[in-house]
Batch of 4 targets.
Target 1
Amino acid sequence: MEKYLLSAAGVIFLSVIVSLIIPEGKLNKTITFVMRLICILVLIQPITGIFKISSAWNGGEFFDYEYVCGEYSEHQSTQLELLLLDEFNVQTECSVEVAYEDAQFKVNAVEVLLNENEAGFIEKIYAYLQQLGYINISVYAKSS
């Protein structure tokens, strides 16, 4: 309340000073009108706060990043399976872990599961994923 009173008094004081300084004429009328309008706006500022519409949002997270990370992980896993099938002609089960960190989505880990008879591709797939820039890579074959 103290800030409001100081700003209102300051605007009124500024209005009086400006009206004393400006010369008579057309410009005087325009500037006086603008200064009165500013004074009126400053004086009715507390009344406008009554009409503000409050939203139901209480400042929490706007997006469900956990859900988005899950969907993104699922999509990346499927795309990686297709990429490995195209590149190496092997069926795999891929799991890509995506997390939201530092205001961006990052791949934290990659896990590739091969069939037992395709164990010879482990090093090739590992090197290929490193070349693509993946981190925390695990490639292994299913055991019977």
Target 2
Amino acid sequence: MGKSGMHQISGRGGDLPKKQGGGGTKPTPRIQNRRAFHDYHVMDKLEAGIELVGSEVKSVRQGKVQLGQSFAQIRDGQVTLHGCHIDEYVEANKLNHDPTRNRRLLLHRREIRRLIQRIQKEQGSTLIPLEIYFKRGYAKVLLGVAKGKKLFDKRAAIKEREAKRGMDRAMRR
């Protein structure tokens, strides 16, 4: 026993003993929709749960998701994700899922009401998924209330980005 009356753990500086056995957990990927920020002005972001079947969860954990052409839609008080492609899970055999099925997004009623009001207020806006990730074991989708960019907006954004890169390069020298 040490001076304080507590047992001192042997090792480096009183560290707790390490767990024995096979390593840590593998980090789950964050699947991002890079195209979204190029094609849209994102005005607001909202996190929603996503209803998945077992083989879809396994595929998402492997990072086999494509968000390129996907969008969310509100109908009959429910939000659904359309056009999101989640590859089939190889080990699922005949119990596999349909890769392009529409998936229900999980939101509270007041959040859905707020989304409806926001979309009606901003003419020409839409709901697009910005990324899919896991939070405390649950699959989540980061939705963005977005408005489509025109071609000249895209060109201006590219020009601005390249100018910023040039300034950063000059500052480093």
Target 3
Amino acid sequence: MIIVSTGLACSLLVGGFILLVIIRVPVAFALGIATMPLIMLELRLTPFIVIDRMFQSYGSFILLAVPFFLLAANLMNSGKITDKLIDLARVLTGWMPGGLGHVNVAVSMMFAGISGSSTADAAGCGKILIPAMVREGYDTRFSIAITACSSVMGVIIPPSILMIVWGGVMNMSVGALFLAGAVPGLLIGAALMATVYGYAKVYNYPVAIRPTFADFFTAFKGAALALLTPIFVIGSIVMGIVTPTESAIIAAVYALILGMFVYRTVTVRDLGGILYDTGRFASISLFAIGTASAFGWLLAFYNVPRLIVDTMTAMQFGTFGTAIMIAALFLFFGLFIDAIPTIIILGTVLLPVATAAEIHPVAFAIIGIVSLAFGLVTPPYGLCLLISASIGGMNVSQVLRDVAIILMPMLAILMLIILFPQLALWLPSTLMPDSFR
């Protein structure tokens, strides 16, 4: 056994992890397995230390919000509440050229304000809207691409599971992060609608519906109770009434009440499957948090973050250049790794870099989360793209051209946030000045 240097430790950890991902070991397991060579070489480490770091990461009360927000999303999908949001989106945006494309974007924005999960958005909305768009004469590739790209707003528009994890890991106000994501999320939604309008003009896509006031009233009445969810969740956190975990429980209980007693679309028999799916997806996310925490702790143990900070500070990129580098790193990692372990590993490493470059921690968080959200539609990881392509019955490679076109204005919004961080900082600084400071 030897005392391992910082360079060797970084090479073993990162190199081992990349190799395991290349040979298709699941990311959560790859992060854990990559720590093994160091444990065997280093005199100061034992397997029990790594296991202890994993269990310590689960001690954060705020992480309980993750399974409850997933449960709320699953209840919304199973309770046909998504259908009511789609009906409202139809009367709000269906009258524009490329109507169903606009409906797709609008319902993703509304669903994002309820679920906090992009994958739940892609699955729930995609099952309904992709076949509907194809029947109306929309190109299948465009239908899949716009569904996948609009679903990324699920982790940008509050509430957001990624923001909850970020707040827990970085010891930041989740309420401030929620507020900071609102304007960027709305800007991305507007950019997507502009893209749909362009497609509609080029390919002569039809108008979905010309609604009357009665249609609007009926649709709003059906979706009104569901739309109260973000008011309960975000409002209660911002006003300091509940914690993020408690707000997630409120969202889950409210979705259960809507599904079982108001709309009566969820039965006792359905609950078993809903709880099973929620537990399965939550366990995957939480296990990744544990192994990523152990991996990140080893990086810190060998002073890798300090080395990166010193290196990037010596390059003197300045505030703007550092923000660009941070976004590029998150975008790159998002190609291969799930967002949650990336936040724990890369976010904690780059936070001191952002601080040294005088980037506000909340602005840094939004840049990271928006960049990681785009990884949900970029191969080889691209989970939302995989889900949407599967629903549309096409191979991912067949829709990459349309995804690239739709992503361009979304990347422009990311650049806008980097140039003008007040776009993200205005709401939290106005409504939560104490937490924001």
Target 4
Amino acid sequence: MSKVKKIIKAIGIVLLSILILCVLFIIVSLINHKVRSAKEWALLEEKGYINLVEAQDYRLNAPYWGNPEGKHTIVCLSGMGIDNCSLTMRKITIDVEDDNLIICLDRAGYGLSDDTKEDQTCERIVEKYRTALKNGGFEGPYIIMAHSMAGVYTTYWESVYPDEIEGILFLDSTPVLEGNFFAEDENQKMGKVTEFLYTLSCDVGLDRFFPNVYWSVLPETYTEEEQTIHTALYANSSQTHALISETNNVNDACRTAYDNLKTTDIPKTYIGSSYNFETLDDLKQFIEVYNSDMRRQGKPEDNKTDEQYENMLPGFQDFWQANYVPYIESLGNCEIIAIPSGHLTYQNCPDEVGEVLSDLIEKVEKGE
């Protein structure tokens, strides 16, 4: 019996030691996170990445560049889980800043915006966008540049408040189409325990030890200072209550946008960069960009023969025609452009996207 007690005691000591080490690690991580965050915020403020504006219950970050007296106000909206919108999207807008005002508006829990436990529905997100822009003194109508899931919110915004928008550039945005919503299985939603662990990892800086798991990886074309800014933006917001709520509400947001969708004459351009492949060369270009991303992250590449790519191409084309084209056509007055550069097309091909933005601005001015 004494032998059993000794074993139990030894196991207890081991478990207690592990617990103490975990607590110590979290404390060290928290201290490291707070110290580095203070330095990062100082850098971001110095470089103009902080402009917190009231959106009723909390503040959204709306840094801006360009000409406050410019012809147009261009509002950049990030895709889901993208915290470096104010860094990466400026690569697109830099050439039009002399004549336009550029705002990178982060929703709750993104970038340097405040986090919130408020349910992140499509309607609420758009209302917070509108409120923040009004309180920040940014008058419309706006040209919206929306990546991925932000396209869903922009579709709703355009349909409900068309007078506030004069042009839209959809960057590989999520399609809104009947029968194309995400699975409505409640089991796919993040539970409270998982939510606690994710937000804890962000709050105490555990994300900093696993950046390739939680954060996107920038191309080599970005400078060392830009890499630092990228880290700062993600390290202070990567796993938040607002993001988790938004993730859980994806299906409802798509349905809300669909139920309110109205065809308009507002000039729009949709850049398809993940499925819109007209030729085999388009698909190969997409795969090369994908493999480049994988190499940066230290992950396996997707290398296939030409024959395998030829067999894949019809599947991509059918998927594009079935899931994207009907949605884009339902928007009205929307040009489709293919830039096969992966979902983060604005990051991978900023010059090409910048040219498309300039063309859209010209259409807006001509009233086309």
